[in-house]
Write a structure and sequence with these properties.
Rossmann fold; 5 helices; alpha/beta; 172 residues; 8-stranded mixed beta sheet
Length: 172
């Protein structure tokens, strides 16, 4: 995976401000064996600098039962109609299973971890981007392979909307 600093630098260098950050990954905010990952510090920095104002962490459906259970045990998370919301110092994160995620209409910064989604879900994510249902300024791939990058760019480029895709941490 690319460092969280590299991801922050990508967002900062783009010049966008006040965006929604959509993280399509199982363990980005929650971390591997802890409730909060190191990415939280970079998200806090992005919030403090006005790059990000709202965060969604979208979880693959097959991982949702475990995440649902884990979040129910964490005091700074509470149940919502679609999943959970969590409060950190100056920001809040909405954690939602993929099947319940309704993308916002406004432009977003999108981080995708293709390794945690099924092939069908990953292709659906790419089609949402292509069709404008997931309106992205920047799309960053974490933990992906060159094949994952190719799937996403082929689907997105074959549409009317072409967006830059950054392969952060993609294997060669």
């Amino acid at each position: 995976m690319a460092s969280t600093t590299e991801l922050y630098n990508l967002f900062e260098s783009s010049g966008v401000r006040g965006r929604i950050l959509i993280i399509l990954s199982r363990k980005y905010i929650l971390g591997e064996h802890e409730y909060v990952s190191p990415a939280v510090k970079e998200i806090e920095r992005a919030v403090q600098h006005g790059i990000v104002r709202k965060i969604y962490n979208i979880i693959p459906d097959d991982s949702w039962p475990e995440i649902n259970w884990n979040l129910s045990l964490v005091s700074n998370y509470w149940k919502t109609a679609s999943g959970f919301a969590g409060a950190f110092e100056d920001w809040r994160v909405n954690v939602v299973p993929y099947s319940r995620f309704i993308p916002p209409e406004e432009k977003s910064l999108v981080v995708v971890d293709p390794q945690v989604f099924t092939t069908k879900e990953y292709e659906q994510i790419a089609l949402r981007i292509k069709n404008g249902n997931l309106n992205a300024d920047i799309i960053a791939i974490i933990n992906g392979t060159q094949a994952d990058l190719k799937v996403l760019t082929d689907i997105v480029k074959n549409g009317e909307r072409t967006r830059p895709v950054s392969p952060l941490g993609a294997a060669k």
